[in-house]
Automatic annotation (TrEMBL):
<keyword id="KW-0007">Acetylation</keyword>
<keyword id="KW-0677">Repeat</keyword>
<comment type="pathway">
    <text>Carbohydrate metabolism; hexose metabolism.</text>
</comment>
<comment type="similarity">
    <text>Belongs to the hexokinase family.</text>
</comment>
<dbReference type="GO" id="GO:0006006">
    <property type="term" value="P:glucose metabolic process"/>
</dbReference>
<dbReference type="GO" id="GO:0008865">
    <property type="term" value="F:fructokinase activity"/>
</dbReference>
<dbReference type="InterPro" id="IPR043129">
    <property type="entry name" value="ATPase_NBD"/>
</dbReference>
<keyword id="KW-0963">Cytoplasm</keyword>
<keyword id="KW-0808">Transferase</keyword>
<dbReference type="Pfam" id="PF03727">
    <property type="entry name" value="Hexokinase_2"/>
</dbReference>
<dbReference type="GO" id="GO:0005524">
    <property type="term" value="F:ATP binding"/>
</dbReference>
<dbReference type="InterPro" id="IPR022673">
    <property type="entry name" value="Hexokinase_C"/>
</dbReference>
<dbReference type="InterPro" id="IPR022672">
    <property type="entry name" value="Hexokinase_N"/>
</dbReference>
<dbReference type="Pfam" id="PF00349">
    <property type="entry name" value="Hexokinase_1"/>
</dbReference>
<protein>
    <recommendedName>
        <fullName>Phosphotransferase</fullName>
        <ecNumber>2.7.1.-</ecNumber>
    </recommendedName>
</protein>
<dbReference type="InterPro" id="IPR019807">
    <property type="entry name" value="Hexokinase_BS"/>
</dbReference>
<comment type="subunit">
    <text>Monomer. Interacts with TIGAR; the interaction increases hexokinase activity in a hypoxia- and HIF1A-dependent manner.</text>
</comment>
Length: 458
C-alpha cells in the first residue's frame, strides 16, 4: 500500500532528516566554517558572508542595515507597503505619545493579478503606486508627504536602509527588468510618473525583520523573526564579530537568512523526494528555493496532490481513477473539496489515506522548519556562552496562523531538539507591515535628530 509505505518511510526518516538538516545548517550555514558563495565547497571562511548575485551560501545570509531598536519616543503618522505574495497590503500606522505610547493602524489588502506577477516590472510597480494612491485618497491624506516603509519579501542585496537590489524572484513572481535593480528606485519612479502624490520612502525591509521588530516592541527578548506562509524565511540577531563585511566587532546586527534557498547547492539531495523534485522541475525557478519548496504553503497542497495522483494511478485509492480535477495543481484546501466533487464515492479507506498523506506532508514541513530554527537558536545560545537560552521567536505567515496543527508540531519539535532553550513563540498579526512602519519611525526620528544637530552646529 503506497500511502502506508510513504508514510512509514517518511516518518521513520524524520529523525535522520531532522538531525541532518539541523546539523548541516548549524555546522555549515550559520556557525563554524561557511561554504563560500559559488565556491563549490572548496573555499571556506570563518564568518558569515553576504550573498553574491547569482549565487548563494548554504544558508543565504544577507547583511541588513536595520538597527534593531524598539521605538519608545516615536510619534506621528507612517505609511507601510507589504509585498510578499499574491496580495499586498497598504497600512497607515499612527503612533501617539500621551504619556504612554499608543499605536493605531488602518490597512487595506489589494490583489496582484497573475498577469502582473509575470509581466513587466513597470506594470507591477505602476499597480502598486495606483493602489497606494487609492488608499491615501480614501483616508484623505493624499496631500501629505508621509514617511513610508516598504516590506519587500524577496531575496535582495541591501546596500542602504532605503536601497535594495532584487537578487531573484520567488513565490510565483517573474516580472521582467527587476532582478538586479533597486526596488525602491522602481517604486519612486512609478510614483513620480503619476504626479498626483508624493511620499518619503525611508526604509525597505524583509518581512522576517518586520515581524521581529513588531514582536520586539512587546517583548524585548525577541531575537528571531520567522515566516511560514506562501514562502518561508527567518532572520535573527547576530554578533557583529561574526559578520565579515561589517566594520567593527561590538554590538549586534539583524541577519536576513533567506533560508528558503537552503539546499540550492545540493545539501538536501539526500532528503528530497520524487514529488519535491517534480514540483521543482515544473516551477518558475528550477533549482532555486529548494527548502522553501519542501515546507511552504505555496507547495504543500501540490505535494499532497502529486502523492494522491500516484496512488490513484497505481490503483490504491479512488478505484484507480485519476480525474482531471485531481491531476491539475491544487491548493490543500482545494484537494479536500475535490474529494467531494469527483463523484467517486470515496471509501473510508480513501478518506483515511488522504488524511494521512496530508498529515505526513504537513508534519514533515513543521519538523524541517523546527530543525532549521533549532540551529539558529543554538547559534544564539553559543554567542551568549550560556548554558540555557531564554529567547522569543516572532512568527507570522498563513501556514503558521491557519493550519490547525502546524504551529503545535513545530513547537514540540523545537523543544525536543533544543531542550536547553526556553523558547517563547509570539504570533505577530500584520507583523511584517507594522514592522516596516516601526523601522521607518525609528529611522525618521534619527534623521530628524541628525538634521537638528547639524542646524544647531551651523
Amino acid at each position: 500500500f503506497i500511502c502506508l509505505s510513504f508514510s512509514l518511510s517518511t516518518c521513520s526518516a524524520h529523525s535522520y532528516c531532522i538531525l541532518y538538516a539541523a546539523n548541516t545548517i548549524h555546522t555549515v550555514g550559520v556557525s563554524g566554517e561557511h561554504t563560500a558563495a559559488g565556491g563549490g565547497g572548496n573555499a571556506s571562511y570563518k564568518r558569515i558572508n553576504p550573498v553574491s548575485e547569482g549565487s548563494c551560501t548554504v544558508v543565504w545570509a544577507v547583511d541588513h542595515y536595520d538597527v534593531f531598536l524598539c521605538p519608545h519616543t516615536e510619534k506621528g503618522d507612517f505609511l507601510a507597503l507589504d509585498l510578499g505574495g499574491t496580495n499586498f497590503r497598504v497600512l497607515l500606522v499612527k503612533v501617539s505619545d500621551n504619556g504612554r505610547q499608543k499605536v493605531e493602524m488602518e490597512n487595506q489588502i489589494y490583489a496582484i493579478p497573475e498577469h502582473l506577477m509575470r509581466g513587466s516590472g513597470t506594470q507591477l510597480f505602476d499597480h502598486i503606486a495606483e493602489c497606494l494612491a487609492n488608499f491615501m485618497e480614501k483616508l484623505g491624506i493624499k496631500d501629505r508627504k508621509l514617511p513610508l516603509g516598504f516590506t519587500f519579501s524577496f531575496p535582495c542585496r541591501q546596500t542602504k536602509l532605503d536601497e535594495s537590489l532584487l537578487v531573484s524572484w520567488t513565490k510565483g513572481f517573474k516580472c521582467s527588468s527587476v532582478e538586479g535593480h533597486d526596488v525602491v528606485a522602481l517604486l519612486r519612479k512609478a510614483i513620480r510618473k503619476r504626479g498626483d502624490f508624493d511620499i518619503d520612502i525611508v526604509a525597505v525591509i524583509n518581512d522576517t525583520v518586520g515581524t521581529m521588530m513588531t514582536c520586539g516592541y512587546d517583548d524585548h527578548n525577541c531575537e528571531v523573526g520567522l515566516i511560514v506562509g506562501t514562502g518561508t524565511n527567518a532572520c535573527y540577531m547576530e554578533e557583529m564579530r561574526h559578520l565579515e563585511t561589517v566594520e567593527g566587532d561590538e554590538g549586534r546586527m539583524c541577519v536576513n537568512m533567506e533560508w528558503g534557498a537552503f539546499g540550492d547547492n545540493g545539501e538536501l539531495e539526500d532528503l528530497r523526494t520524487e514529488f519535491e523534485r517534480e514540483i521543482d522541475c515544473g516551477s518558475l525557478n528550477p533549482g532555486k528555493q529548494l527548502f522553501e519548496k519542501m515546507i511552504s504553503g505555496m507547495y504543500m497542497g501540490e505535494l499532497v496532490q502529486l502523492i494522491l495522483v500516484k496512488m490513484a494511478k497505481e490503483g490504491y485509492v479512488f478505484q484507480g481513477r485519476v480525474m482531471s480535477a485531481l491531476a491539475h495543481p491544487r491548493t490543500l484546501q482545494d484537494l479536500l473539496r475535490v474529494l467531494r466533487e469527483l463523484g467517486l464515492d470515496p471509501s473510508p479507506e480513501d478518506c483515511a489515506a488522504t488524511q494521512r498523506v496530508c498529515q505526513v506532508v504537513s508534519t514533515c514541513a513543521a519538523h524541517l522548519c523546527a530543525a532549521t530554527l533549532a540551529s539558529v537558536l543554538r547559534q544564539i545560545r553559543d554567542n551568549k556562552a550560556t548554558d540555557r537560552l531564554r529567547t522569543t521567536v516572532g512568527v507570522d505567515g498563513s501556514v503558521y496562523k491557519n493550519h490547525p496543527q502546524f504551529a503545535q508540531r513545530m513547537h514540540r519539535m523545537v523543544h525536543r531538539l533544543v531542550p536547553d532553550c526556553d523558547v517563547r513563540f509570539l504570533y505577530s498579526e500584520d507583523g511584517s507591515g507594522m514592522g516596516a512602519a516601526m523601522v521607518t519611525a525609528v529611522a525618521y526620528r534619527l534623521d530628524m535628530q541628525h538634521a537638528d544637530s547639524l542646524t544647531f552646529f551651523c
